Amino acid sequence: LARLIESSTDAIIATDKDGKVVLFNGGAETLLGYRAQEVIGRHNMEIYGDEEEAIEVAREMRKRGGTVAGFESILRAKDGSGIPVLISASVMFGEQGQEVGTVGFATDLRARKREEETLRKAYDELEKRVEERTTELKAARERLQYLMKVTPAIVYTNQARDYACTFVSENVSRIMGFSSWEMT
Q1: Has this prediction a pTM greater than 0.70?
Q2: How many alpha carbons fall within 13 Å on the CB side of residue 78?
């Protein structure tokens, strides 16, 4: 178990019942930039983005019966930057059922957040292009409709196999006396 904890790429952090860090694995060191010796014995609130983040995770654990899974939060790196993470954590109980601490796993979400932002920007750009193209097509359609009304010629289309009329301009009635629906 110790080898698994130490080799995990996810941050694994355990605390005692007072919230002081008792385990800080290599994944946590890599993610947050602290060495385990710098963090062990310190209160876990120091590694959250702010005190409210730590309280929110604890509140969610209590609300969900001592376990939280897939909870987004922010941890504070040694350099002061906030790192978005996905936390799964549980309260640990002793042999007599008393709370003895917590253990949590934090997965780095920075890459996913960057990808989500890139996707959002691409979506916004696509929406903008669709809107621009729709406006252009509407203007072209309005110009075409105008030309169809004022032109002295009748514009029509036929099917190739039986020459059935599939479209005829509205001015057919003015020129030939037939309505467009009679021609189609």
Answers
A1: no
A2: 12
